[in-house]
C-alpha cells in the first residue's frame, strides 16, 4: 500500500560528497533490528541499488569506487541511479516502497516520519564516537540515527581571485561594509557580475545562508539558544546580519540583471572563468567550480573560498561547519546488510572527501584538512561546529520552525528579501524581519517553550 510523504517545507540543502580512509569496517552497535554490515565477503550473491544525486560523477568516481568495492565484496553488485532533480524525484518515489536499497536522504521528510522510510543505523551515543556531526544532523532523531553524513563542509563563499585582483581588492573583506565595497569595485573595474544569487535554483537560497548564523555568532551554542528567544531576527543578531547582506547586494544592483532567470549549472563555469565574482556556497562547491575551470581552459586556482564577511567582538572571523547530506537505507529493502556493507565501505574506504575537498566525517581523520580550505588556515579563520542540542530539546528547533512557518531552511522568506530589494514587493527588510519575529514568538508561546 502506498504511503504519502509528509513534506516539510524545509528546503533543499544540496550537496553530497563521500568520505575516505583506510580503517577497518566497524559493524553498527545500534538497536536490535537495525541493519548490520558483515565485515567479510558474503557467499550469497545480491544486487543492490544505490540512488544519489551526483549525476556529474556517477560514471567516473562512483563507478571506480564500486569496482574497488567488488574486489573485496565480489558478491554484492551495486547498481546506481541518479537524478538532477534529486529531492523532487525521490520524494515522489517514496510514495511507494521502490526507492533503492541505499540512498541519499532528502530534506522533504518530517524527521518524525523517518522511522517509516529509513532503517535505524544505530544509536547516537555509539555512532558519535566514530562519526562527526551525528547529533547535529537532521538524520538523527533523539537517540535514533537514520543516516550518516557523507562528509562535512565549511561555510563561506566561493569567489574568483583573479577578478578580485583585477578590481583592486587586495584583502578578504571582514565586514559586510567591506564586502559591499569590494563588489562595487568589481562592478566598476571588471565585466564580471559581482554577486550571483542563483535565485531560480531555489535551494541556493534555501540552505546556503542559514548556516552563517553560526559563523556570525562565533558561538557553537548559539543555534541551541534560538528556541529560547522571541526575536532572533532583530537588528544586531546573526539572522538579521546574514540576510541583510543578501538584501543589500540586491538593493545596490550588485547582482545579475534578472535573478528570476539564473541557471545553476552554468553559474559554476561562469564563476570559474570570471564572468561571476562571488556566490554564496559552501566549501563543497570549490572542487566543482575548479573542475569547470579545467574544462574551460582557465586556471582552477582562480577559484577560492572566503568566510562570511563578519568580524566577531573578539576580533576573530569564524566559519561554521557541519555535515553534508546523509546516506541511509530504505526500510523496505530486503538486502539491508548488503546495503550497510556498501555504505560503510563508501564512508571508510574511499577517498571521496579528499577528491571533493570536503571535511572528513570520521573522527579519526580530522587532521586531514582539505586543500581548498587552506585559505582559511592562512587567514586564521576559526572553524566551529554547532554543539548538539540537549537531549531534552532534541528536535525542538525543527518543531518550532515548522510550527512558526518561518522556514529557516526554506527559500520562502529569502525570496521575499530578494524581491523586496528588487522593488517588486512593497515591504522593507525590517518589515520582513519583524514578521518573522512575530511568527517565531507566537509559535514559542503555542508550544509552551520557556
Describe this entry's structure for a reader:
By secondary structure, this protein is of the alpha/beta class. The protein folds into 2 domains: 1-151 and 324-368, Periplasmic binding protein-like II (D-Maltodextrin-Binding Protein, domain 2, 3-Layer(aba) Sandwich); 153-323 and 370-450, 3-Layer(aba) Sandwich (D-Maltodextrin-Binding Protein, domain 2). The chain is 36% helix and 13% strand. The protein is built from 18 helices and 15 strands. The chain has helices at 58-72, 86-93, 114-117, 124-127, 161-166, 176-189, 203-206, 212-217, 222-225, 238-251, 264-273, 285-296, 336-348, 352-356, 374-379, 396-404, 412-422, 429-447; strands spanning 46-52, 76-82, 102-104, 122-123, 140-141, 144-145, 148-149, 152-154, 157-160, 193-195, 276-279, 303-306, 318-323, 326-329, 382-385. A 5-stranded mixed beta sheet has the order 2-1-3-14-7. A 4-stranded mixed beta sheet has the order 10-11-9-12. It has a 3-stranded antiparallel beta sheet with strand order 4-6-5. β1, α1 (58-72) and β2 form a beta-alpha-beta unit. α10 packs across α17, α11 packs across α12 and α16 (396-404) crosses α18. Mean pLDDT is 89; it is low at 1-37.
Task: Please provide a brief summary of the model.
This protein is an alpha/beta fold and 450 residues long. It has helices at 58-72, 86-93, 114-117, 124-127, 161-166, 176-189, 203-206, 212-217, 222-225, 238-251, 264-273, 285-296, 336-348, 352-356, 374-379, 396-404, 412-422, 429-447, and strands at residues 46-52, 76-82, 102-104, 122-123, 140-141, 144-145, 148-149, 152-154, 157-160, 193-195, 276-279, 303-306, 318-323, 326-329, 382-385.
Amino acid at each position: 500500500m502506498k504511503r504519502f510523504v509528509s513534506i516539510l517545507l524545509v528546503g533543499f540543502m544540496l550537496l553530497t560528497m563521500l568520505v575516505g580512509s583506510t580503517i577497518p569496517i566497524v559493524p553498527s552497535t545500534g538497536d536490535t533490528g537495525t541493519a548490520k554490515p558483515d565485515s567479510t565477503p558474503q557467499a550469497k550473491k545480491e544486487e543492490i541499488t544505490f540512488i544519489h544525486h551526483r549525476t556529474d560523477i556517477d560514471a567516473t568516481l562512483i563507478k571506480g569506487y564500486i569496482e574497488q568495492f567488488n574486489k573485496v565484496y565480489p558478491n554484492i553488485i551495486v547498481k546506481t541511479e541518479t537524478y538532477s532533480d534529486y529531492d523532487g524525484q525521490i520524494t515522489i518515489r517514496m510514495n511507494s516502497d521502490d526507492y533503492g536499497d541505499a540512498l541519499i536522504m532528502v530534506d522533504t521528510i518530517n524527521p518524525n516520519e523517518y522511522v517509516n522510510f529509513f532503517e535505524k543505523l544505530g544509536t547516537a551515543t555509539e555512532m558519535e564516537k566514530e562519526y562527526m556531526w551525528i547529533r547535529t544532523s537532521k538524520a538523527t532523531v533523539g537517540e535514533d540515527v537514520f543516516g550518516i553524513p557523507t562528509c562535512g563542509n565549511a561555510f563561506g563563499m566561493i569567489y574568483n581571485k583573479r577578478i578580485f585582483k583585477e578590481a583592486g581588492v587586495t584583502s578578504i573583506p571582514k565586514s559586510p561594509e567591506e564586502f559591499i565595497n569590494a563588489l562595487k569595485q568589481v562592478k566598476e573595474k571588471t565585466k564580471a557580475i559581482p554577486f550571483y544569487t542563483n535565485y531560480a535554483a531555489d535551494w541556493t537560497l534555501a540552505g546556503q545562508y542559514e548556516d552563517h548564523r553560526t559563523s556570525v555568532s562565533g558561538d557553537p551554542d548559539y543555534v541551541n539558544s534560538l528556541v529560547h528567544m522571541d526575536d532572533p531576527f532583530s537588528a544586531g543578531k546573526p539572522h538579521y546580519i546574514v540576510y541583510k547582506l543578501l538584501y543589500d547586494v540586491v538593493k545596490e544592483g550588485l547582482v545579475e540583471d534578472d535573478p528570476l532567470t539564473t541557471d545553476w549549472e552554468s553559474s559554476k563555469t561562469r564563476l570559474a572563468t570570471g564572468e561571476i565574482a562571488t556566490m554564496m556556497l559552501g566549501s563543497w562547491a570549490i572542487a566543482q567550480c575548479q573542475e569547470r575551470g579545467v574544462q574551460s581552459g582557465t586556471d582552477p586556482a582562480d577559484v577560492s573560498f572566503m568566510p562570511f564577511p563578519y568580524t566577531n567582538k573578539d576580533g576573530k572571523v569564524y566559519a561554521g561547519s557541519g555535515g553534508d547530506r546523509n546516506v541511509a537505507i530504505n526500510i523496505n529493502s530486503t538486502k539491508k546488510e548488503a546495503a550497510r556493507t556498501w555504505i560503510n565501505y563508501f564512508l571508510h574506504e574511499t577517498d571521496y572527501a579528499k577528491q571533493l575537498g570536503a571535511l572528513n566525517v570520521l573522527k579519526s581523520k580530522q587532521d586531514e584538512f582539505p586543500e581548498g580550505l587552506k585559505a582559511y588556515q592562512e587567514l586564521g579563520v576559526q572553524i566551529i561546529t554547532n554543539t548538539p542540542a540537549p537531549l531534552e530539546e532534541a528536535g525542538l528547533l525543527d518543531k518550532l520552525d515548522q510550527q512558526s512557518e518561518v522556514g529557516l531552511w526554506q527559500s520562502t522568506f529569502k525570496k521575499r528579501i530578494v524581491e523586496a530589494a528588487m522593488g517588486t514587493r512593497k515591504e522593507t527588510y525590517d518589515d520582513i524581519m519583524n514578521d518573522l519575529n512575530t511568527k517565531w514568538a507566537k509559535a514559542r508561546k503555542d508550544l509552551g517553550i520557556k
